[in-house]
Design brief:
The protein is α/β, with parallel strands linked by helices and about 300 residues long. It is built from ten helices and seven strands. Helix 2 links the parallel strand 2 and strand 3. Bound molecules: adenosine monophosphate and manganese (II) ion (3 copies).
Length: about 300
């Protein structure tokens, strides 16, 4: 199964392809937005989408780099949302938004709230760690996180610096994973609300890495509801989807009339983690389909 990870759909000859999922230091990636775009160009991609968690502050720099180095940059975002499952509780669902208009008032308000909440949540997580005798200097954490949004990977890096964990994975496994002793839930908009808000910001929504959801939602009716709210695609290809997962979600996308997209979800090089931008590439035609959906004006 593992051997089939990172499969790519066929592309026409000469098409460098598009990696539609990447992170920069505006969220929990390690590279600057310009460096992500430069790297995408170096590995021969024709297009790259920058999709930071709950922020668009990296996009102006990424777009400018795209113009400078002649590679198409699709402005995006990855929103952490909450899908209500009634009695069974909520599940965390990530929604990618593409073609986002940076000056849209609704999305600005939402992203400002989410950014502020992430800061409060990080402070609460530091309190939990302090109670476990693992103090971290909030200023050091701020410095690691930089501008944009703060997340658990930044806390994990601070823990490594202090010798509290051997690796990012180790910090997650022992303290930061959901249910772990330092975990605090982040505030999240409802999935359908997020899709509608993105739509008002001129962006089309794509369900991110459905193979990583805690609950299988095929057949639940939720996908149909998301489509009705304006979702246009499903991220079929992802660096953590194996072959059978890709095939299953491609079938689902086809059945629902949704665009099958894909991306590496690269966070940049980290200790013990290989660079992987461009490891997942979909045909450039997929970007055209997304842009056509953006233009098709049903989005206002
Ligand atoms: P947050 O958005 O603050 O809840 O942090 C979630 C982010 O942490 C994800 O986007 C991943 O980049 C990263 N992450 C989640 N689980 C792990 C893990 N087990 N090991 C390393 N990184 C992880
Ligand atoms: Mn991340
Ligand atoms: Mn995600
Ligand atoms: Mn991501």
């Amino acid at each position: 199964m593992g051997a089939e990870r990172g499969i790519n759909p066929p592309r026409p000859d000469g098409d460098g392809g598009a990696d539609l999922h990447s992170h920069t230091c505006a969220s929990d990636g390690t590279r600057s937005p310009a460096a992500v775009v430069a790297r995408a160009r170096e590995v021969g991609l024709s297009a790259v989408a920058v999709t930071d968690h709950d922020t668009v502050v990296g996009l102006p720099e990424a777009l400018a780099a795209g113009e400078r180095w002649d590679i198409k940059v699709l402005p995006g975002v990855e929103l952490s949302t909450r899908l209500r499952q009634g009695e069974r509780g909520d599940i965390e669902v990530h929604v990618l938004g593409y073609g986002i208009k940076l000056d849209s008032p609704d999305i600005r308000v939402l992203l400002r709230e989410l950014t502020a909440n992430r800061r409060d949540r990080a402070a609460q997580m530091l309190q939990r760690l302090a109670a476990l005798n693992l103090p971290i200097d909030p200023q050091r954490l701020e410095a690691i996180a930089g501008s944009g949004t703060i997340g658990r990977p930044h806390i994990a890096r601070a823990m490594m610096e202090k010798g509290y964990a051997n690796s990012i994975e180790d910090a997650f496994r022992r303290y930061l994973d959901r249910g772990g002793p330092a975990f605090v839930e982040a505030a999240k908009p409802g999935t359908l609300t997020a899709i509608t808000t993105l739509r008002r910001a001129g962006a089309v929504s794509v369900l991110a890495h459905p193979g990583l959801l805690r609950v299988d939602i095929i057949g639940s009716g939720y996908l149909e509801q998301m489509k009705a709210a304006g979702m246009v695609g499903i991220e079929v290809y992802h660096s953590r989807h194996d072959g059978p997962t890709c095939r299953r979600w491609q079938k689902t996308a086809d059945r629902l009339g949704l665009i099958g997209t894909g991306g590496s979800d690269c966070h940049g090089p980290l200790p013990g983690k290989m660079e992987q931008i461009g490891s997942i590439r979909v045909p450039t035609a997929t970007v055209e389909r997304l842009l056509t959906a953006v233009e098709n004006g049903s989005f206002n």
